[in-house]
Amino acid sequence: MSETPSILTAPLPPLSAQAARLIELGVHELAGIPADDLHAFAESADCEEGDALLAVLPGRAPASTLAPLLDRAGKQGFVVTDMTDVDRFTPCAVELPDAPLYLVTGLDRGDHLANWSPDEALPALAKESRTPLLLTEGIHWILQQPAILERNRCFMTIGSRLRKDNGALDARTPAIWISNGTGRDGRERRNAPKVGWCWWGNRHTWLGFASAMDRRI
Length: 217
Fold this sequence. Notes:
With about 220 residues, this protein is of the alpha+beta class. Helices cover about 25% and strands about 20% of the residues.
């Protein structure tokens, strides 16, 4: 009997199914992309089956609009209340295709980097010829494979950074994890998918660093 693959090795849904999922959630309308264009992109993409994630450019579908589409056991995703500037966390040292839709390949949750700080993890990913995921890409991944977000096995998305007016990078970095329903989250949000932030220099045993090998159209 063949062994059932873990969520970390399970293939992504076919791109046609991913397109249908985004349309079902209304992402195409949020992004101003006709459903037919989304289907056409998925059908014409040249990639290895099960390896590519279909993503919408952050400027077309920002994190604030995608996070509420997340769902875990009937609990709606949310952005923490003290991150009203979530959409100002934009790609940093990550090159994106010049197109509204693109593919992200070689996804990895980065469990092996758990308990590292972002400052330590970023050069380690570079040595592996990998780039960190953007926050929006992390949300897209969970929308297509909800089981990738596991308690005590969640991840940071340090490809998204906020640059201050003076040019310096904000000390916060986005992450996606599961709410415990404490503090300002509210008891009713226990076990809900949560978009929050961590300090750039801090370590967390339950947060890895999600990354990808390539982005293309």
